């Protein structure tokens, strides 16, 4: 994506928040629901008459206050707050049982919104207790695993939908480690979880590229589910809380970002518009409508080959974590 394309997208006038009862009789589950575009999406959804709104978060107590405020405004809103930590695979694996305990046997809309940006500083890899690099696990592995582990609930819906929150930064991400892995016959998963080759400054964009690769392939592997990867655009959220505010960033980077960033509410419109109106799967959704990824690499022969190889690796990876979880995927 060129600089001017990015600026043009950021300043595109977005349509208003979807109106009406488009979530009537639907159960909606969203991760990372207590801040940023996740919280703003929840506010939008509360106007759309969901039968149940499930907020999957790490910080339960602050989310309870948020839900209470929403229910004071929407007295018929039924909400659930369930603990979920994407940096703990045991938390993901335990989630279905928690849903059953609460009498939930169906999910109509799953929104994989939670993610992290480790910032722009040069720092070493942080490895989770599950043995994965933290950004890779949070932004790539866990959303994939979480979606597959909830397939039995999604299959109870007449029109199931999965939303993945991506980023336009996938278009400019450095593909070198992916391509080198393919050329040398190495595992892409292992390369991205190797401490020695870790690059903190580049990992966020790369993680969103890897997610885009997964969701593209997942669309063909789950034809009965509407799958959409949504880019909220650059928005003012807590996602940048780990940024290193060096003098150069304060002088050049921060003013540029603040000048061109959307509000979290406007970023959330991309998510809610996809939930309300996407009638089929789209590998990219931007500016509140079906769009296209400007990553020429993804559409190239090398990118297509790498996407298939990486998806196969990830299928094997999650099957090791939760045996049998991939049986619902088609070839």
From TrEMBL:
Signal peptide feature range: none
InterPro entries: NAD(P)-bd_dom_sf (IPR036291), SDR_fam (IPR002347)
Domain of life: Eukaryota
Listed Gene3D superfamilies: NAD(P)-binding Rossmann-like Domain
A Pfam family annotated for this UniProt entry: adh_short
SUPFAM superfamilies noted in UniProt: NAD(P)-binding Rossmann-fold domains
Keywords tagged on the record: Oxidoreductase
Keyword Oxidoreductase: yes
Keyword Transferase on entry: no
Protein name, per record: NAD(P)-binding protein
Source organism (scientific name): Kwoniella shivajii
């Amino acid at each position: 994506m060129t600089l001017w394309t990015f600026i043009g997208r950021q300043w595109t006038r977005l349509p208003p928040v979807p109106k009406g009862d488009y979530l009537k009789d639907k159960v909606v589950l969203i991760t990372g629901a207590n801040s940023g575009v996740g919280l703003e999406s929840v506010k939008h959804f509360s106007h759309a008459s969901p039968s149940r709104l499930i907020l999957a978060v790490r910080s339960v107590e602050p989310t309870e206050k948020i839900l209470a405020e929403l229910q004071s405004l929407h007295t018929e809103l039924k909400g659930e707050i369930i603990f979920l930590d994407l940096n703990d695979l045991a938390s993901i694996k335990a989630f279905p049982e928690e849903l059953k305990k609460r009498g939930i046997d169906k999910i109509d809309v799953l929104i994989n919104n939670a993610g992290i940006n480790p910032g722009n500083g040069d720092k070493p890899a942080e490895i989770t207790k599950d043995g994965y690099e933290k950004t890779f696990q949070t932004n790539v592995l866990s959303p994939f695993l979480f979606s597959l582990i909830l397939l039995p609930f999604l299959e109870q819906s007449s029109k199931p939908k999965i939303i993945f929150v991506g980023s336009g930064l996938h278009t400019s991400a450095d593909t070198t480690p992916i391509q080198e892995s393919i050329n040398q016959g190495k595992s892409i998963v292992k390369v991205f979880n190797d401490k020695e080759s870790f690059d903190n400054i580049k990992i966020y964009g790369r993680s969103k590229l890897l997610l885009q690769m997964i969701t593209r392939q997942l669309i063909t592997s789950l034809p009965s589910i509407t799958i959409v990867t949504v880019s909220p655009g650059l928005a003012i959220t807590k996602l940048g809380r780990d940024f290193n505010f060096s003098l150069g960033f304060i002088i050049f980077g921060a003013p540029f970002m603040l000048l061109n960033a959307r509000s979290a509410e406007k970023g959330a419109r991309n998510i809610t518009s996809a939930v309300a109106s996407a009638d089929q799967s789209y590998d990219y959704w931007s500016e509140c409508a079906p769009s296209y990824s400007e990553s020429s690499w993804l559409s190239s022969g090398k990118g297509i080959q790498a996407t298939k190889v990486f998806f196969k690796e990830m299928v094997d990876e999650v099957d090791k974590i939760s045996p049998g979880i991939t049986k619902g995927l088609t070839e």
